[in-house]
Amino acid sequence: MIRFEDVSVTYDGAAEPTVQGIDFEVPEGELVLLAGPSGVGKSTVLGAVSGLVPHFTGGTLRGRVTVAGRDTRTHKPRELADVVGTVGQDPLSHFVTDTVEDELAYGMESLGLAPDVMRRRVEETLDLLGLAGLRDRPIATLSGGQQQRVAIGSVLTPHPGVLVLDEPTSALDPAAAEEVLAVLQRLVHDLGTTVLMAEHRLERVIQYADQVVLLPAPGASPLLGDPAEVMAVSPVYPPVVALGRLAGWTPLPLTVRDARRRAGDLKQQLRNAPDKGRGEPRDKPRTTRARKRSAHPTPVGRAEALSVLRGRVQALSHVDLTITPGETIALMGRNGAGKSTLLNSLVGLVKPSSGTVLLGDATPHRTPPKDLVRKVGLVPQEPRDLLYADTVAAECAAADRDAGADPGTCRALVTELLPGVTDGTHPRDLSEGQRLALALAVVLTARPPLLLLDEPTRGLDYAAKARLVTVLRALAAEGHAIVLATHDVELAAEIAHRVVLLAEGEVIADGPTADVVVSSPSFAPQVTKILAPQHWLTVTEVRAALRESGR
Amino acid sequence: MDSGPRRRGRAQLHPGAWWLWALALGTAATRTTNPLLLALLISVSAYVVATRRPDTPWSRSYGAFVKLALAVILIRLGFAIVLGSPIPGTNTLLTLPELPLPAWAQGIRLGGEVTAEALTFALYDGLRLATLLICVGAANALANPSRLLKSLPGALYEMGVAVVVALTFAPSLIADVQRLRAARRLRGRPDQGVRGLLQVGLPVLEGALERSVALAAAMDARGYGRTAQVPPAVRRTTAALTLGGLLGVCAGTYGLLTAEGAAYGLPVLLAGLAAALAGLKLGGRRSLRTRYRPDRWDVRAWLVVASGVAVAALLALAAARDPAALHPGVVPLVAPTLPLWPAAAVLLGLVPAFVAPDPKELS
């Protein structure tokens, strides 16, 4: 259905091709996953299918891409609109109209389909994607998962043979991601749609893929094959594969269920592992560290009976939270559960409608910004919001000035977090992970005892995530308290001492990570699910335990 | 997902009907300076908005229009106080220090006497403009402007989409400004004041530009701008008709407005209009586009439009018959009275509150 013949793409002004030697075929009715670390050109490959590369983006495409027999050299994106449906990373920038029903019809109107056909297909699509109850709703009022489903629906109505998706679940909470993936699954099974998608969060999607195209490194030619085979050599892999590699299982399991079937021996081994008995708190070394720190008399941050009203919505109601130095807390919950509002009220961006927030003895929304940065730092969901200057050096100089720190403080932090970034680089040219590190360095310049991060792993690949984990662990060890709002259960399992679950603005669970996530089906990390009823959270822990018992 | 007996969500009034109704009320407002009649017009439109506006983001713009109208009145009064007014008056309220101006600025006055007559005149004048604005705000709140643009002829479709996109971009631009100003606080900089606003300007524009590019890519990939092949003859005729028509409209309008051209003005204007419309119709052939569930123009739409037009026509008639009642005098100052039958005419504008579908029943 999609055929790449020795394709290479060179953007204008770039010395090297972004991708080269792309040569593979996607058969009709398959779900093919495009995997690889950040910056290898996954989006370029996806764009080449819809013809946006090179017709819209510019650049030179060598070789040939054909979709349903149409050559993208001679067909512009708009002439491929009836065979390829494309959904980009941000569904909001995809919408042309303002209500759900009009959005579903838009593509068909452009293609000039007859009114009765349009009417039928809109109704079918509303049912297929479970959107019937939302048909008259303005798109701006929908949740992230609903918007993603509307975006998929809006390209489905012209009945394209091919669906191209760039990171469809990255911004979604686990439940909303399941919702979107279930829809894709249904399209592939019932309608025979060919799906090509790129996704960083392999643990969510790998089990649905028929084949995987792996782009191992920038400029390297792709590897196409059976998911299990490709995962055996891939530089990016989900925890289930990591555990499989560790235990030496072949073929590698891709789903929790497969892995659990093979896990008998491993569980036996782990049961004999010293001090990691079944059902015991899995957090020992870290809790002791946290306990030692919590001997500090004053918590760095505290919310008491905090309520926030936004318009008519109760964003937070009666939230109590105490943050002690050296502690890492993960805030989890659905999109719109109040995680960001809680972080924002801790930095004084949101005024509490009742209750109190205290940082030490200061009230954040009454503290002048200049003093506030020394008490608390927030890296927002979009780290770019914090960056104004056009070079890294200028950004660092401004950060030193803002924080009243010695000149060079921020630059030293940047060198530590981001080795190899030169002074003259424009923040815009950094990758997602690098930009996050730069924003983190800017915030850390004022040495705030409390550090808040909003969705830090959005758009990060496994390597960038591992680096972030190392950095955050080191900060916690130095005595910083860290609160992160995240959908990423694997990240929470890796670094959080405590998990706070929010639902509809209320705290519904607050306790050690092991206790909270183990009992929840959607927030449990893969390793926990595989090795249940033993309480293991991450591959790192399992590896350490095996090493110890082997000794 | 949800079930149960539910009337069709689309049983809304044609957006064009709301706009015509509101513009007719606005026209009526231009016929009078009687503050009581103007207040009555505002109340009529506000009542209809209160009972018939749907619960959507754009319908909340009504409040913004009311604020804008108040600002207009205040600015008008401010001008009358500072710059003086040509209205002769005897009831001096206060005397501001007058700024002596050089001879070449004769006719302009800064400061000086402020009379009750001048202020009353300014208030009436400002109120008239405010009423017009509030009527436009009512149309905006009652009918989604982008649905109105959907009813444009095919040839203008692409322009309509551009306007719709611009309309949806404004709110997200405001959200961007708010988010970035808030982010300044995180850097330890003051998040209020003009300087803060200026410094986020560039990032906001960058963000908007990026979003527009992403949207353009998405629209391209969804088939925006697909055109049908039309024979060159048709293309040329379209261009000739549209251009000629527009020229005709210009010439005709000029003719109507000048004293000498009154004889040929109207026919040329009408001929030009007809040619331009034919050009648009023909130009529509190039567009492949079809319409999904276009709004129907039904009896209720006729009734709504008729009520608005009746108000405008009756007030225009009243203004011609009894100018004194519709334009209460300011020199000498007299208290305005409510003329009975023009007031009754204004109340006709309430018809939509009873014939238009109730949005609350629909959802």
TrEMBL record, chain A:
GO terms for cellular component: ATP-binding cassette (ABC) transporter complex. It comes from the Bacteria. Residues 2-243, 301-529 form the ABC transporter domain. Its main location: membrane. Coiled coil: none annotated. One of its GO terms (molecular function) is ATP hydrolysis activity. It is found in: Cell membrane. Gene3D superfamilies: P-loop containing nucleotide triphosphate hydrolases. Residues 273-286 have a biased composition (Basic and acidic residues). InterPro entries: AAA+_ATPase, ABC_transporter-like_ATP-bd, ABC_transporter-like_CS, ABC_transpr_CbiO/EcfA_su, ECF_ABC_transporter_ATP-bd, P-loop_NTPase. Its EC number is 3.6.3.-. Keywords: ATP-binding, Cell membrane, Hydrolase, Membrane, Nucleotide-binding, Repeat, Translocase, Transport. It is a peripheral membrane protein. It holds the Pfam family ABC_tran. Residues 262-303 are annotated as: Disordered. Probably part of an ABC transporter complex. Responsible for energy coupling to the transport system. Belongs to the ABC transporter superfamily. PANTHER family: HEAVY METAL TRANSPORTER. This is Energy-coupling factor transport system ATP-binding protein.
Automatic annotation (TrEMBL), chain B:
Keywords: Membrane, Transmembrane, Transmembrane helix. It is a multi-pass membrane protein. The chain crosses the membrane at residues 35-52, 64-87, 155-177, 239-257, 263-280, 301-320, 340-357. Coiled coil: none annotated. GO terms for cellular component: plasma membrane. It is found in: Membrane. This is Energy-coupling factor transport system permease protein.
